[in-house]
Design brief:
heterodimer; A: 323 residues; MetI-like fold; 2 domains; two-stranded antiparallel sheet; globular; B: mainly alpha; 16 helices; 72% helix; MetI-like_sf (chain A); ABC transporter permease subunit (chain A); transmembrane (chain A)
């Protein structure tokens, strides 16, 4: 069965690759394509080095890793680090913060590009539409550092523009960035400002593929603007919404590491600490390698479980799913 | 057909709402530019100024005269050029290989690459690999660990899939080997895709921030984003002892706000310059950007 593809393109080699000489067939195929492998080699080495070798490093989650003894000789402790983590109050704090940030993202950040693309689709003037599109895509290319800078500029308590406005209006200044009650919402607002516009591209592309005759037929049948949105435009992007929702659900544990890392400060550490920042702090900064690897492994496993679950549910409800 | 009043109302509201969104996006950028050009005396008056009466380049002149900032600029420039070229080489080679259907072990290889998208071992094991390779405190630690990624390979392979085998065969019959085929046929054909991927890689490298925080202690090797972060978050504490005294001295003469915003503008400028070109390749980019490695 391996030889089928090969035969299709290079029939000359057919004689070599009969069932009897399968071994030789593999070898001659490899030899034939040696240049192809040379092209792919750097990439293969990359994936081995940076995506697969790290898997073996996961062993230290079950050890008391000591830099002097190395990975192979360090003491084996089984699930001790996991037990320590789950019985730690930090765990519930991290879980709460992660879930809260993800839930807010799901509620506000996720539907926003869908609404925005539906609205953009209704704009008759194509120049106006293009101008707005070009503007809202821009922030996607800004780094989180720049987003953080712009946020300070607008919202900081001492010099932020919004607070200066409040002062002019005779109102009290608000510490948007240092108030733990509004911190999660501030993160959501940041994400929306940065990525909502960009998120519309994929929906607008799908909407553009809808046969205009459908819309015309609906108009003849007396459907209004909103009925057409509901019965024609939305079904056209339903699959994409579903796929993105699956991905979103699968990444509940990922809460925008750089963003949180940049925006956190002493006043809000209680509500800003998430799994990634915790792993970074306890691992790289404090040197608890085994413990933080265990935390990271827990996060990854839950992430995979979530994405498989969401995919399964989507298929169950008659949608396509990601894989 | 006569339009209903509610239809008109919707259209007006829609246009108004979208204008507001556009304004909310542009305003912080505009205000940043204004502040960066503002004259110190005007800034110290403490009034809200949306259009300064006097524009000055002082902050920029100062910023670009400091060693720290120039070092950071050159590091980021290096990442965006050398990193992008290497990334393109590695990604396109692997994607092309995987797109050839006659290849042995193609399916298992594809599966192994897809798996890396789904499951990532986490921060610490990756840090260990970088450390063991002796890349800590080297600019290469910002390039090599992020050379390519599952999504990039998948997307670029999708592009190569559309190049038929027969084209290659024809060239081979004419006496070209695979490498020759690659350079003479595949590469020219894939130039538009390469430009698109290159732009997105370049933006990614220019925005490199966290890997530098993790892997690099030597402040002369910090990319722009790290320097900018230090300037932004806490100008006094972050700058002391990090070789940024020079910048702090300047901050005494000038409102630190002006200096910060000038730094933001300089950091953003290259992105704004390539933005019109990026725009042409959005369809591919939307997928590339959807998952960041």
């Amino acid at each position: 069965m391996n030889t089928k593809d090969g035969n299709a393109s290079v029939p000359i080699l057919e004689a070599h690759t009969t069932k009897r000489s399968l071994h030789r067939g593999v070898w001659s195929d490899l030899k034939r394509d040696k240049y192809l492998y040379v092209l792919g080699l750097p990439g293969i080495i990359y994936f081995l080095l940076f995506k697969y070798i790290p898997f073996s490093g996961l062993i230290i989650a079950f050890e008391n890793y000591s830099p002097y003894l190395g990975i192979l000789k360090s003491q084996w402790v089984g699930f001790e680090h996991f037990q320590r983590f789950f019985s730690n109050d930090d765990f519930y704090l991290l879980l709460r913060n992660t879930l809260a940030i993800s839930l807010l993202n799901l509620l506000f950040f996720f539907p926003f590009p869908i609404i925005l693309s539906l609205l953009l689709n209704e704009v008759r003037n194509s120049v106006y539409k293009r101008v707005i599109q070009s503007i809202v895509y821009i922030p996607h290319f800004f780094s989180w550092v720049i987003i953080a800078g712009l946020t300070y500029l607008m919202l900081s308590q001492s010099e932020g523009l919004v607070n200066e406005l409040l002062e002019v209006l005779g109102m009290a200044k608000i510490g948007f960035l240092t108030n733990s009650n509004s911190f999660w919402m501030m993160l959501t607002a940041q994400s929306m400002w940065k990525e909502a516009g960009w998120g519309t591209i994929i929906f607008l592309a799908a909407i553009a593929g809808v046969d205009p005759q459908l819309s015309e037929a609906a108009t003849v049948d007396g459907a209004g603007r909103f009925r057409k949105m509901w019965h024609i435009t939305l079904p056209a992007i339903r699959n994409i919404i579903m796929i993105l929702l699956i991905l979103q659900l699968g990444s509940i544990m990922d809460t925008g590491f750089e963003q949180v890392y940049l925006m956190t400060n002493g006043a809000v550490s209680e509500v800003s600490d998430v799994f990634d920042t915790y792993v970074y702090r306890s691992g790289i900064q404090q040197g608890q390698f085994s413990y933080s690897t265990a935390v990271g492994l827990f996060k990854s496993v839950v992430g995979v479980a979530l994405i498989c679950m969401a995919n399964f549910l989507a298929k169950r409800f008659g949608q396509e799913g990601v894989f | 057909m006569k339009k209903k009043i509610s239809d008109h109302l919707f259209e007006v509201c829609n246009i108004g709402f979208l204008a507001l969104i556009g304004l909310a996006t542009l305003f912080p950028i505009y205000y940043t530019v204004v502040l960066s050009f503002m004259d110190p005396t005007e800034y110290y008056q403490g009034k809200l100024t949306l259009f300064p009466s006097k524009w000055t380049m002082e902050a920029y002149r100062y910023l670009l005269s400091t060693r720290t900032f120039i070092d950071a600029l050159s590091v980021s420039g290096f990442l965006a050029t050398v990193g992008t070229l290497l990334s393109l080489t590695v990604t396109s080679g692997l994607s092309y290989m995987l797109s050839r259907k006659r290849l042995r072990f193609r399916r298992p290889l594809m599966f192994l690459i897809l798996l890396t998208i789904l499951f990532q071992p986490g921060l610490i094991p990756s840090y260990f690999v970088v450390r063991e390779l002796g890349l800590l405190d080297s600019v290469w630690s910002l390039i090599i660990p992020s050379l390519t990624g599952g999504w990039y390979v998948l997307l670029m392979k999708g592009f190569y899939d559309s190049i038929p085998d027969s084209l290659e065969e024809a060239a081979r019959i004419d006496g070209c080997n695979e490498i020759g085929v690659w350079f003479k046929i595949i590469l020219p054909l894939s130039l538009p895709a390469m430009v698109a991927f290159g732009l997105f890689y370049a933006v990614g490298y220019w925005n490199t921030f966290f890997s530098a925080v993790m892997y690099i202690n030597d402040h002369t090797k910090w990319p722009l984003q790290v320097i900018l972060r230090n300037m932004l978050t806490d100008p006094t504490s972050a700058m002391s002892g990090n070789g940024l005294q020079q910048l702090r001295e300047g901050a005494k003469k000038m409102p630190s706000e002006t200096l910060k915003m000038a730094a933001v503008v300089v950091t953003t400028l290259p992105i704004m310059l390539v933005y019109p070109f990026l725009q042409k390749h959005f369809a591919k980019g939307a997928m590339v950007g959807s998952v960041k490695e």
